[in-house]
Design a protein that fits this description.
This protein has helices spanning 14-22, 35-41, 43-51, 66-77, 92-102, 123-130, 136-149, 159-169, 196-202, 211-214, 219-230, and strands spanning 4-8, 30-33, 56-62, 83-87, 111-115, 154-156, 174-177, 206-209. An 8-stranded parallel beta barrel has the order 1-2-3-4-5-6-7-8, surrounded by 7 helices. The radius of gyration is 17 Å and the shape is globular. The model has no long low-confidence stretch (mean pLDDT 95). The protein has one domain: Aldolase class I (TIM Barrel, Alpha-Beta Barrel). By secondary structure, it is α/β, with parallel strands linked by helices. Bound molecules: cytidine-5'-monophosphate. The site of cytidine-5'-monophosphate has 17 residues, from strand 8 and helix 10.
């Protein structure tokens, strides 16, 4: 499994996204399109980025009744994205429905991963707001094994949990990890964070990096620093 850095393109418009990516002369970073950009621009932004040669992780975090998720995934599978996701908290049945919906008539499909617990959620919020009393690591591990049981390809989790997920679900089960910060950078609203180098050590397959790259004075240099720390070691 090739390690890679995925840039979270959390921008409000296609114009801003394309202007940002234009700075990466000669490079085609793997990009993540989240709710903000997709809700603003719709499927056309996915097609434009694919036409430009980017690999795309469409991060819409589906969570609904199984039938609705299955039908929505069928629509997304026609977009030729590389990775899509849903919430593991939607249950094993919902994840199975997601996989069924995503699978094209020829049997191919984008990679499908599940969000375990958002990296902005900590133990206290999980206990008080969600009434989930188990330790967060156990919850993440349980959600990851549910995702594996449903036939998914991996999970989105904190890099702090990547080693445990691999131990439980196998080395081939993907760990896609946001909550990445440089050692000398701002944490922002993320609670469970790690540097690109530490994420590499612990076995993350892909790191998702947003503001440390998008808000950097020199985004290309910040991206290259991520690649140096995470990929080229
Ligand atoms: O700016 P920052 O590096 O915090 O961006 C992280 C990105 O990863 C955001 O787009 C956020 O929606 C996403 N994400 C996350 N935690 C998850 C799943 C996705 O932070 N568990």
């Amino acid at each position: 499994m090739g390690k890679d850095v995925i840039i979270a393109c959390d921008f409000p418009s296609a114009d801003e996204t394309l202007r940002f990516l234009d700075r990466f002369t000669g490079k085609k970073p793997f990009v993540k399109i989240g709710m903000e950009l997709f809700y603003a621009e719709g499927p056309s932004i996915v097609r434009r980025l694919k036409e430009r040669g980017h690999r795309v992780f469409l991060d819409l975090k589906l969570h609904d009744i199984p039938n609705t998720v299955k039908k929505a995934m069928a629509v997304l599978s026609a977009l030729d994205v590389d990775i899509v996701n849903c919430h593991a908290s939607g249950t094993v049945r919902m994840m199975e429905a997601a996989r069924e919906g995503l699978t094209r008539p020829d049997g191919s499909r984008p990679l499908l991963i599940a969000v375990t617990q958002l990296t902005s959620t900590d133990q206290e919020a999980m206990e008080n707001d969600l009434l989930i009393k188990s330790p967060i690591q156990e919850v993440v591990a349980h959600y990851a094994s549910n995702a594996k049981k449903a036939g998914l390809d991996g999970v989105v989790c904190s890099p702090l949990e990547a080693a445990k997920v691999h131990a439980l679900c196998g080395a081939d089960f993907l760990t896609v990890t946001p909550g990445i910060r440089f050692a000398d950078g701002d944490v922002g609203d993320q609670k469970r964070v790690m540097t690109p180098a530490a994420a590499r050590e612990i076995g993350s397959d892909y790191i998702v990096v947003g503001r440390p790259v998008t808000a950097a004075a020199d985004p290309v240099e910040a991206y290259e620093r991520c690649v140096r720390e995470f990929v080229d070691r």
